[in-house]
Amino acid sequence: MLDKLELPERHYLNNGHGLKSWLLTKDHKRIAIMYLISISAMFMLGGFFAAGVRLELMTPRGDLFLADTYNKFFTMHGIVMVFFFLIPSTPAVLGNFLLPLMIGAKDLAFPRLNLLSLYLFWIGIVFFFYALFSGGIDTGWTFYTPFSAAVSNTNVVPVALGVFIAGFSSILTGLNFIVTIHRMRAPGLTWFRLPLFVWAHYATSLIQVLGTPVIAITIVMLFTERAFGFGIFDPTRGGDPVLFQHLFWFYSHPAVYLMILPAMGVISEVLSTFSRKTIFGYSFVAFSSLAIAVFGFIVWAHHLFVAGISTYSAMVFSFLSFSVAIPSAVKMFNWTATLYKGTISFEAPMLYVYGFFGLFLVGGLTGLFLATLGIDVHVHDTYFVVAHFHYVMVGGAIMGYLGGLHFWWPKITGRMYSEFLSRISAIMVFVGFNLTFFPQFILGYMGMPRRYHAYPDEFQVLNVMSSGGSVVLGIGYLLPVIYFLWSLKHGAVAGPNPWVASGLEWQTASPPPTENFVETPHVHGEPYEYTPHVAREANLV
Amino acid sequence: MGSFGIPLFPEQASTFAQDIDALYLFIVAVSAFFALGVSVAVVVFGIIYRRRHEGEIGARIEGNLPLELIWSIIPTMIAMVMFGWGASAFYHVRTPPKEAMSVYAVGKQWMWKFQHLEGQREINELHVPVGRAVKVIITSEDVIHSLFFPAFRTKIDAIPGRYTQLWFEASKVGRYHIFCAEYCGTNHSAMIGWVTVMEPADYQAWLSGGGIEGTLVERGERLFQDLACGSCHLDTGRGRGPSLKEIVGTQVALANGSTALVDEGYLRESIINSQAKIVEGFQPLMPAFQGLISEDNLVALVEYVKSQSPSATTTAAAAPTAPPNPPPPGKRN
Questions:
Q1: B179 touches chain A (CB under 8 A)
Q2: Are residues B85 and B171 in the same domain?
Q3: Are residues B200 and B274 in the same domain?
Q4: Residue A329: partners with Cβ closer than 8 Å, 6 or more residues away
Q5: B277 with B206, same domain?
Q6: Of A101, A353, B44, B259, which has the maximum CB count within 10 A?
Q7: Which of B212, B238, B258 represents a domain boundary (last residue)?
Q8: Do B205 and B222 have their domain in common?
Q9: Three-state DSSP class for residue B260
Q10: What residues make up the domain containing B305?
Q11: Would the CA dihedral through B137, B142, B146, B147 be positive or negative?
Q12: For the segment A190-248, what is each residue's pLDDT rounded down to a tens digit?
């Protein structure tokens, strides 16, 4: 059947050629492609720094890099991955591409604002590269004062400005999504007929709009202290160094949910398609996204349990931190129940979903250890924390992102990639990830502090395991670059709906025309409807 | 402890190490139960309900309210158990007993400096007796550090401009790691040391082997004289500054109408930034010693002032319920 399929004659990729047609485009799909290229490059740069870190930690002594170089490596790994890869990843690429398609709209509500977001993101990257080529930065991605404000003699100001500017990209994208979801839904597409991917992005956008200004203000404070000597955080000038941590985490904790929520949206879509079932407890999954976004704002001080906050305020924040666990658990249970009596198949996107389950389970459950005060006092600032947040932000968020990329790749490009290689890649990522990061939980409980250039000999075995695993993980992450690029020219033509998925985005051509739908779709049914009728339409029976 | 040559736990060398490990294992068990439960379910469903031919459609099941309630409420209850256990363990770890002996620690890039009341000063080494509660009062001279004793299962950040504290009671003689856990610049990973837990008799012998500068209080007294603190802080209460007799552990009324508990942190602030909390009835005449006195000397000075309050004994925060002193009659000059 597949050989009869042909790419549509006219689609968003061949509507205009040359650099100008891309750089001045208002098409959300082309903007998404430019985000995809940008963040993929940043991911490789962040991965390069990670490789340096893992290489240094093969041996207990700091014998590969100078201490300052090592410190710059882990700092730039964190900054690149968090601010220039993870935060934009799913929303700016998949969200940008899919939101209008999923709600039957021609574009986002503000197409020019969308292009401005991309340019702001690029300007942020330029500032980061300026800092990189003038010697880098060594504050850790958390920029803690007074080290960042008064002591470090590296490029704090340009990086802070880069993050500040990229933050506005995030705010504007969030704003654009919120307005689009409110105002641009196709006729008949009520709130409770929205795909869960859209719900997840709505929750994400709330965090982007409400949280990002706080980090912007914090960066301005850091900037004024560093550049003009204002005593905001410097205790010798009447400032409070811990104030920075409160402000920083008021944004940066919700930012973790900003990374994981859109990935969770991907999971719901892929899971439904590959089990050909509606999502179990649709409204619970939808509202749990909002609950995570809201609760995420009231748990920041769990990053300060050993930073001198009072015993009782620590207890309040511990209690509140557990509240985030409940909606996350509800999602996990509903996804599990979705599989019950499904008809499940295991193409690459579904393998990524299974990988997400495994890694997010570990990442989420180890969050309980950190919310538990007595345990946190011991494992705070150790490799336990490093392992935990990699399981959530890399295991969870990137598994979701890659799963989504594999799922919608045929929609984005109109072509299929190698099924065999993509399965190999999904398995390598899962295995490599666990090899890399599981030993770090043990290292952390053993007491190995994070951000150590050299370490006592007894930690070596586990560190070597971790570095070994990172090789497998790295290859797993690189493989898609190869088969995705290969597919652009040689991949089989996918057709509008290769997975027999139920969403609106699959009812238009692949790749879609610039205006997305030839005529505005009308929605009559519930989301994720798999009926014999759907099967017949897809020529399954 | 360990298995197959891979260590799993650091040594248990404090009285609360076992409690923390027990709590840890409890959460490991709960987590393993849920992780395995869900993993087995998704794998088994994946096998049983695998797609056998292309035309299959999954069953139409939209949800189940009782199930939603069960899997919301049961995890909530389990989480509350973790919260309660964790909070009570934390309260224990954070609350030093009254009879704890004090040691001062100052972090700076990149070393830990410890001072014993008896006068011994150490760098990246800390000697403590086994079986006795030790309270470590901590600050930093530059950036934020974090004093971490893995074998004791406790840590606290060293924050410039204020005192924080932790305590432990070592339960096993031996030498254990001290780490800096908060990233502090170039040689963060070299800001490490050893805590040596000794039999009480050995500890006494060790104490008597050093301290050429006298005890911490004696050093503080010399500083008190050198800096001429006594010319204003008269014991009679009729000086230009308040009397320092029997003030530790009390609430003092401040010129701005509020009150403050006199503890190490208050004393430190009142020396470094003397204008911050002026005692009611006094003029803001005292110079600020910010930048003029090292953290090490500050510790000695604080300890000397504390020694002027013998009834508050070892810990300043031990008697917070004492009635506020009547403000001394202010003498205008």
A1: yes
A2: yes
A3: no
A4: A364, B34, B71, B72, B75
A5: no
A6: A353
A7: B212
A8: no
A9: strand
A10: 216-318
A11: negative
A12: 999 999 999 999 999 999 999 999 999 999 999 999 988 888 999 888 889 999 999 99
Question: Chain A interface, mutation test: which of B56, B187, B271, most A Cβ atoms within 10 Å?
Answer: B56
Q: In what order do the strands lie in the sheet with B101-108?
A: B121-123, B111-116, B101-108, B133-140, B164-169
Q: What is the layout of strands, in order, in the sheet containing B193-198?
A: B125-129, B193-198, B174-180, B145-149, B154-158
Residue entry with tokens 């005890």: B215
Write the burial class of residue A308 (CB in 10 Å: 0-12 exposed, 13-18 middle, 19+ buried).
buried
Helix, strand, coil percent values for chain A (each to nearest 5) = 70, 0, 30
Chain B partners of A438 at a C-beta cutoff of 8 Å?
none
CA–CA min distance B208, chain A (Å)? 32
Nearest by CB to residue B164, choosing from A235, A308, A378, is: A308
> Which residue does chain A place closest to B9, by CA atoms?
A446
The reply to whether residue A368 touches residue B27, judged by beta carbons under 8 angstroms, is yes
Q: Residue A537: pLDDT band by 50, 70, 90 thresholds?
A: low
The residue of chain A nearest to residue B145, with distances taken between CA atoms, is A307
Q: Does B86 contact A371 at a Cβ distance shorter than 8 Å?
A: yes
CATH number at residue B263: 1.10.760.10
B183 with B286, same domain: the answer is no
Contacts of A68 in chain B (CB under 8 A): 186
Topology classification of domain A26-537: Cytochrome C Oxidase; Chain A (1.20.210)
CATH number at residue B89: 2.60.40.420
Residues of chain B contacting residue A381, judged by C-beta atoms under 8 Å apart: 146, 148, 155, 181-182
- Alpha-carbon distance of A502 to A516, in angstroms, equals 17
Q: What are phi and psi of A290, to 5 degrees?
A: -65, -40
Judge: A280–B59 Cβ closer than 8 Å, yes or no: no
Q: Is residue B199 assigned to a domain? A: yes
B205 and B233 share a domain? Answer: no
Average pLDDT, chain A: 93
CB pairs < 8 Å spanning A and B: 297
Interface contact B284, partner A, CB < 8 A: no
pLDDT in tens, B242-282: 888 888 888 999 988 899 999 888 998 888 888 888 898 88
- For residue A365, the model assigns a pLDDT of 96
User: 3-state class of A500 per DSSP?
Assistant: coil
First to last CA, chain B: 68
Output the pLDDT for position A162.
96
The answer as to whether B332 is a domain residue is: no
Domain C-terminal end among B183, B212, B241:
B212
Residue B55 lies inside a defined structural domain of this protein: no
pLDDT recorded at residue A282: 94
How many domains does the structure of chain B reveal? 2
Give B273's Cβ-side CA count (13 Å radius): 12
CB A356 within 8 A of CB A331: no
Residue B84 and residue B221 in one domain: no
* Residues within 8 A of A (CB atoms), B 5-64 only: 5-10, 19-20, 23-24, 27, 30-31, 34-35, 38-39, 41-42, 45-46, 49-52, 54-64
Do the Cβ atoms of B155 and A377 come within 8 Å? yes
Q: Which long-range contacts (CB under 8 A, 24 or more apart) does A320-323 make?
A: A320/A295, A321/A367, A321/A370, A321/A371, A322/A368, A322/A371, A322/B79, A322/B80, A322/B82, A322/B83, A323/A295, A323/A298, A323/A299
Does residue B156 belong to the interface with chain A, where contact is any CB pair within 8 Å? yes
Does residue B326 fall inside a structural domain?
no
CB nearest to B183's CB, from A343, A451, A530: A451
- For A142, what's the count of Cα atoms within 13 Å in the CB-facing half-sphere? 25
Do B183 and B297 lie in a common domain? no
Q: Judge contact between A408 and A90, C-beta under 8 A.
A: no
